[in-house]
Amino acid sequence: MTISDEDQKLVREMVGKLLEHYDSVQIFVTRQNGEKQVTESFETGGGNFFAHMGQIHEWCSIQDQFQREYARKKDSEE
Predict the structure, then answer these.
(1) DSSP β-bridge partners for residue 46
(2) How far apart are CA 56 and CA 51, in angstroms?
(3) Residue 14 and residue 42 share a domain
(4) Rounded CA gap, 40 and 51, in Å?
(5) Is the pLDDT of residue 2 over 90?
(6) Are 27 and 44 in contact (CB under 8 A)?
(7) By 3-state DSSP, what share of the chain in percent is helix, strand and coil, each rounded to 5?
(8) CA-to-CA distance for 78 and 68, rounded, in angstroms?
(9) Which terminus of the chain has fewer Cβ atoms in its 10 Å neighbourhood, N or C?
(10) What is the secondary structure of 33-58 as a DSSP string?
């Protein structure tokens, strides 16, 4: 489920402001909608597509490595 048009507009405005200072911007937002018990999400960005794809891929790879290291540490403690 995606967030309201008004909230999407807010996120897009933030992307525009950030692009005045940066080459690429990608924003992911989520919110729990309590009454429907679903998570609403939205993503948007702008600028150099390959730069933000590379940055996102690098961030995911680093997070995966952190998780592997955490699991190894927990395993060795047991």
Answers:
(1) 25
(2) 9
(3) yes
(4) 26
(5) no
(6) yes
(7) 55, 25, 15
(8) 16
(9) C
(10) ETTTTEEEEEEEEEE-HHHHHHHHHH
| pLDDT of the residue at 33 | 80
Note the pTM of the prediction, 2 decimals. Answer: 0.77
7/35 same-domain check: yes
The token pair that represents 17 in the structure block:
């402001």
Name residue, tokens 């989520």: 30
For the segment 42-63, what is each residue's pLDDT rounded down to a tens digit? Answer: 999 999 999 989 999 999 999 9
pLDDT category of residue 38 using cuts at 50, 70 and 90: confident
DSSP code string of 60-73: HHHHHHHHHHHHHH
3-state secondary structure of 27: strand
Both 30 and 63 in one domain: the answer is no
Cα(68)–Cα(24) distance, integer angstroms: 29
Q: How many CB atoms within 10 Å of residue 12?
A: 15
Question: Collapsing DSSP states into helix, strand and coil, what is residue 25?
Answer: strand
